[in-house]
Amino acid sequence: MLPKDPFMLLSYINTQLRDNYPSLEELASSMGESMQEIQEKLEKAGYVYAQELNKFINK
């Protein structure tokens, strides 16, 4: 289960991307989560996924 707080979610997702997954798509798939929902939650907090960096960054 992913953290509900957007900043805890940001930290968790970026750490997982850095340490374990080459893409957001693979992370979401392996966790049984929707990539779109993760992106929407973090976008509301002001972050977007930078595919070339494989992490969420401030808009």
What does this protein structure show overall?
This protein is α+β, with helices and mostly antiparallel strands and 59 residues long. It is 54% helix and 14% strand. It has 3 helices and 2 strands; from the N terminus they run H-H-H-E-E. It has helices spanning 6-19, 24-31, 35-44, and strands at 47-50, 55-58. Strands 1-2 form a two-stranded antiparallel ribbon. Strand 1 (47-50) and strand 2 (55-58) form a beta hairpin. The longest helix is centred in the N-terminal third of the chain and has 14 residues, at 6-19.
Protein traits:
59 residues, alpha+beta, two-stranded antiparallel ribbon, 2 strands
Walk me through the topology:
Layout: H1 6-19, H2 24-31, H3 35-44, E1 47-50, E2 55-58
Antiparallel strand pairs: 1-2
In short:
The protein has 59 residues and is α+β, with helices and mostly antiparallel strands. The protein contains three helices and two strands, in the order αααββ.
Radius of gyration: 10 Å
Side by side, the strands of the main sheet go 1-2
Strand content: 5-15%
Q: Please estimate the helix content.
A: 40-55%
CA-based shape:
globular
Largest beta-sheet details: 2 strands, antiparallel
What are the segments in which pLDDT stays under 50 over at least 5 consecutive residues? none
Structural class: alpha+beta
Task: Report the average pLDDT across residues.
Answer: 97
Q: Count every helix, treating DSSP H or I runs of 4 or more residues as helices.
A: 3
Q: What is the count of β-strands?
A: 2
Tell me the series of helices and strands, N- to C-terminal. HHHEE
Distance between the termini: 26 Å
